[in-house]
Design goal:
This protein has 300 residues and is α/β, with parallel strands linked by helices. The chain has helices at residues 47-52, 91-106, 109-118, 141-150, 174-177, 200-205, 223-231, 272-288; strands spanning 4-7, 19-22, 39-40, 62-64, 82-84, 133-137, 156-161, 169-170, 183-186, 211-214, 236-239, 259-261, 296-299. Helix 7 links the parallel strand 10 and strand 11.
């Protein structure tokens, strides 16, 4: 049996017999024969460029993402190619950030930070996470982790999914509940049905003072409609993702009112490295043994 050639950013993984590890150190993608690669793990946070190399790998059998989201990888599917995501790797970090954004948004951290920079002591009453009615839109592994983390607070949680699985409500029931939610957390995959799920109509339906948190994908929210709603001063938002992304200089979101913006760091914490490495090592064991891979999300 010929060696299975695997390209990943880590050159020191524990790989079973039958696996040859390739990495930036011994196999730079811009100057190597990419037809040799059987299993490709795009560089984490490498963006569109890292993913685009898959199109230059004619013998590629598996495209293994290090993200939970995989909408941008679907364009590279072809017959014989399996797409896997990193379900579970980012649950802890992304859920942690979502809760942090909820606390920061409700307790007015952005205003306090601006006051600190200005040297202004501006004591005032803030909102609170306590007693908030929270809607979690998307109830996969990360959504469940967010709900678990929030369970230690005195809040009420309603979850929504497309299918209504795991005792959640279906998304077509969202509009009936939206006007009563203090916090809305978006953590659903980007698809044709979720693109601009939060459009001008739904943003307008949010209650006065409500907080929208997006740790999903930027296009789940209509950016122009959000900027307009934020600048009215009526609602708040905390975004880990944007559309477009990266957010270009001068974009209206940068100066929008009532906004806390972080640069897509939900999964990119110290917790990523050990979990990401463990996922790839587990997949390589299955690959070498001829067993089905985990976290298969699409087949070419």
């Amino acid at each position: 049996m010929s060696e299975i050639k695997v390209w990943t950013q880590w050159d020191d993984l524990t790989a079973p017999a039958g696996i040859t590890l390739l990495s930036p150190k011994n196999f730079p993608l811009d100057s190597s024969d990419l037809s040799q690669i059987d299993f490709y793990v795009p560089l984490y946070m490498g963006g569109a460029k890292a993913l685009s190399y898959a199109a230059q790998m004619p013998n590629l059998k598996t495209l293994q993402m290090l993200n939970a989201g995989y909408d941008d990888a679907l364009a590279y599917l072809r017959p014989g190619l399996t797409l896997c995501n990193a379900r579970g790797v980012h649950d802890a970090s992304t859920a942690e950030l979502a809760v942090g954004l909820a606390i920061a948004g409700r307790r007015g951290f952005p205003d306090f930070m601006r006051d600190q920079i200005a040297g202004t002591w501006n004591h005032h009453r803030t909102g609170a996470l306590t007693d908030s009615k929270i809607g979690i839109i998307g109830y996969g592994s990360i959504g469940k982790k967010i709900a678990q983390n929030l369970s230690g607070f005195e809040v009420s949680i309603t979850t929504f999914t497309q299918s209504g699985r795991d005792a959640s409500l279906t998304i077509d029931q969202l509009d009936a509940h939206l006007p009563n939610l203090d916090i809305v957390i978006l953590i659903l995959p980007l698809s044709d049905s979720s693109r601009h799920l939060f459009n001008a109509q739904r943003l307008a339906a949010m209650k006065d003072g409500a907080l929208l948190i997006n740790v999903a994908r930027g296009p789940v929210v209509d950016t122009d409609a959000l900027v307009s709603e934020l600048n009215s001063g009526r609602i708040y938002a905390a975004l880990d993702v944007t559309d477009p992304e990266p957010l270009p200089a001068g974009h209206p979101l940068w100066s929008a009112k009532n906004l806390l913006l972080v640069p897509h760091v939900g999964g990119n914490s110290d917790a990523f490295e050990p979990r990401g490495r463990a996922l790839i090592e587990s997949q390589l064991k299955l690959l070498a043994a001829g067993q089905p891979l985990e976290h298969v999300v699409a087949q070419g």
